[in-house]
Write a structure and sequence with these properties.
Elements (H helix, E strand, L loop, with lengths): L30 H37 L8 E3 L2 E2 L5 H17 L1 E6 L2 E6 L5 E3 L1 H10 L6 H13 L2 E3 L3 E3 L1 H15 L7 E5 L2 E5 L4 E4 L1 H14 L3 E4 L2 E4 L9 H11 L3 E5 L2 E5 L1 H5 L2 E5 L9 E5 L1 H16 L7 E4 L4 E5 L4 E4 L1 H14 L4 E2 L2 E4 L15 E9 L5 H14 L2 E3 L4 E3 H5 L10 E6 L2 E6 L4 H14 L3 E3 L37 E3 L6 E7 L3 E8 L5 E13 L5 E4 L8 E5 L4 E11 L5 E11 L5 E4 L45
Parallel strand pairs: 1-6, 3-11, 13-20, 32-36
Antiparallel strand pairs: 1-2, 3-4, 5-7, 8-9, 10-12, 13-14, 15-16, 17-18, 19-21, 22-30, 23-29, 24-28, 25-26, 27-28, 29-30, 31-34, 33-36, 34-35
Helix pairs in contact: 2-3, 9-10
């Protein structure tokens, strides 16, 4: 703030006569002494007048301060706004209005017939009227008395002019200049390389025209300081490129050399050649804005595009899905019958980086980087499965089966062989053999469908599920799903096997949700191996695992209520050849049967027990005849049925499996 000097004040005194400084003698009053007395009187009067003048001045200043207690002192001007004598609120309103007008005014630059214009507020210029008001109110109210007196004296002589504070956001202003640069359309162009196939040439540089920003900012600041419109010719400057043609000669020769040699990729004895011309499509060029000349220019490769191209070109030949080993028991230990295969996944992003290094750096062939996915069943680490001993064996005899039934038994046993059950996992018979189809080798044979005997693909497969059930039963495995057969079937009681130790399965459609299954749990921390085979007469299933030390006790069969055979029946089948009479079912009583199994651990503690209950339904003699043979079969619905055999049995508890005997429950048979 400008400070004015105080008004000058000069005291004019008369000259003293010669000898006035001499000391008079005592008791004598010379004539000169009389003149000295008069001088002293004049000085006293002058001092009194000065004091009076100062008193009047102080009184005037005090009255001025009182009169302007809530106002700006007179003669104060902020920018071009006279705020002297205004109240603080009125001055604030006046300054804010002026600030808004300034911010709404525009800055305009013209070049080559084109003008760029923008409101000051949009290019980062902000007026601060409150700061200007604070300075105006401070005039005449300085902390020191002498400063206040000096300030007030200045106001008497001339106006106190205060600039209106403004703030400039250089980032916003730079964005406006950036937009103007783009519209000028002549940025500098660095020299570059043109790649066409394996040909590399240099594209020369071009200088550019851009806003001369320091001069443009100076124009804006001058206009603001003078409070005049900002309209000027756009100051520009030529901008030289950072990279010139001469800077790229060495890089061009290096790239030409790269274009002459393909890159080779290797993996496990395989070799793939990547043509240099194909790789040239991915070359990128970049300029470091912090550098100049050759040091600013660098070559690279489009890593994303190159990785996608490499993946499309090489992945199908390098990658492989992990494949588990197929295993079997050689009489002593677990062995691999078909070795496992490691999964391989190409790391295309990493390969792209290696290809760039080789292509631009001449590093030769590169090994394809891959991730290895080890299979669950690794033929190189079969010991990890924990399969060390035979836990139990199940068997059944299918001699006397039709050719179709025997075929299905043998196909099912082959599909089952080698099934592995994970620790704490669940075995499923249906999932171990898959959906029964002709494509797998199954044929049509006799099968039990609900409450009647018919024919279907896979008839006889229950011979295999029954055999698996027996192995799991005597191994002590917890059975989680089991469906005994509806009727007693002779095949399952050959070789001394008692009734009630059989298991049916059902696949009425391809949807596993509709299947009736045989399942058991593997409660151990080791894998289980299901081994199965046939010898033309017998099906054998061995269950291997860790040595558990379990003891399995089985009590049965316990026989319960018996049920009378059904009356004879004759069924006319229009699809039979004329003259056909076939007996398809044979009379048999129904009976309740149970087997109680207890499983103990190595210390003799009971692990679990269960009664495997079966209700075999009675059957009658049933003949199927062609239409022309109706009434000619031996069926006699009125035949007197023999009495039920009287035996002393044990009451059988209904548990676990009784639901499978509900009438209408389909239960296929072998």
């Amino acid at each position: 703030m400008r400070r004015h000097a105080p008004f000058p004040m000069t005291l004019r005194l008369p000259a003293l006569p010669a000898g006035a400084g001499e000391r008079p003698l005592p008791g004598v009053l010379p004539v000169a002494a009389v003149g000295g007395v008069r001088g002293r009187r004049l000085l006293a009067r002058a001092a009194t007048g000065g004091a009076l003048l100062l008193f009047l001045l102080a009184t005037t200043l005090l009255l001025l301060r009182v009169a302007n207690a809530d106002r700006v002192y007179p003669a104060v001007v902020v920018a071009d706004v006279a705020v002297g004598g205004l109240t603080a609120d009125a001055a604030a309103e006046a300054l804010r209005g002026r600030a808004a007008a300034i911010e709404a005014s525009t800055a305009a630059f013209s070049h080559d017939g084109k003008t760029w214009e923008a409101p000051l507020r949009d290019i980062g210029i902000t007026v601060e009227p409150d700061a200007g008001l604070a300075q105006a109110l401070g005039v005449g109210r300085e902390p020191g008395a002498w400063d206040r007196l000096n300030s007030m004296a200045g106001l008497v002589r001339d106006d106190e002019r205060i600039p209106l504070p403004m703030r400039l956001d250089h980032a916003a202003l730079s964005r406006w200049f950036d937009a103007i640069d783009r519209e000028l359309g002549a940025p500098p162009r660095n020299a570059s390389l043109a790649i066409e196939g394996t040909t590399v040439e240099i594209v020369p540089e071009l200088a550019g025209i851009v806003v001369d920003r320091p001069r443009a900012v100076s124009e804006i600041e001058t206009g603001l300081a003078m409070l005049r419109p900002i309209a000027a010719v756009l100051p520009t400057s030529d901008t030289p490129p950072a990279v010139r043609a001469a800077d790229l000669e060495a890089t061009r020769e290096r790239l030409r050399a790269a274009m002459a040699v393909p890159v080779q990729v290797t993996h496990r004895g395989g070799l793939w050649t990547l043509p240099a011309a194909d790789l040239g499509r991915f070359v990128t060029q970049s300029v470091d804005p912090r550098q100049q000349g050759a040091a600013a220019f660098s070559l690279g490769m489009d890593q994303s595009g190159l990785a996608a191209w490499l993946d499309e070109r090489l992945a199908s030949e390098i990658e492989a899905e992990a494949s588990d080993a197929e295993v079997g028991w050689n009489g002593e230990r677990l062995v691999s019958t078909v070795p496992s295969v490691d999964g391989v996944a190409l790391r295309a992003d990493d390969l792209a980086g290696l290809v760039q290094e080789s292509y631009l750096g001449g590093l030769g062939a590169v090994a394809a980087p891959v991730d290895i996915d080890k299979p669950t069943i690794d033929s190189n680490d079969l010991g990890a499965l924990g399969v060390t001993t035979l836990l139990a064996r199940g068997s059944s005899n299918y001699s006397g089966s039709s050719d179709g039934r025997a075929t299905n038994v043998e196909v099912g046993a082959a599909l089952l062989n080698g099934t592995l059950v994970p620790p704490r996992g669940e075995y499923s018979f249906n999932h171990s053999i898959g959906y029964i189809t002709e494509e797998k080798g199954f044929v049509e044979a006799q099968v039990i469908l609900g409450e009647e005997i018919g024919s279907d693909i896979g008839g006889g497969i229950c011979q295999v599920s029954t055999t698996v059930f027996r192995a799991a039963y005597f191994a002590g495995m917890p059975v989680t799903e089991w469906w005994p057969h509806r009727w007693r079937i002779p095949f399952y009681e050959y070789d001394g096997w008692e009734p009630g130790l059989d298991a049916s399965i059902l696949q009425p459609s391809p949807d596993p949700a509709t299947w009736g299954d045989f399942r058991f749990e593997n409660p151990t921390d080791s894998w289980l191996l299901v081994e199965s085979w046939t010898d033309g007469v017998n099906v054998v299933v061995n269950l291997y695992g860790a040595d558990l030390g379990w003891t399995v006790e089985s009590d049965g069969p316990s026989l319960g209520e018996k049920f009378q055979v059904e009356p004879d029946a004759e069924v006319v089948d229009p699809e039979l050849e004329p003259g056909t009479i076939n007996q398809v079912e044979f009379a048999a009583i129904g009976e309740e049967v149970g087997h109680l199994r207890r499983v103990f651990d190595r210390d003799g503690d009971l692990l679990w027990e269960r009664n495997f209950y079966t209700k075999f339904f009675p059957q009658g003699n049933v003949w199927k005849v062609s239409p022309d043979m109706k009434g000619d079969s031996p069926a006699d619905p009125d035949r007197k049925l023999p009495p039920l055999p009287v035996e002393v049995g044990v009451e059988v508890e209904v548990e676990g499996g009784a639901e499978a005997q509900t009438p209408g429950q389909p239960a296929p048979d072998g």
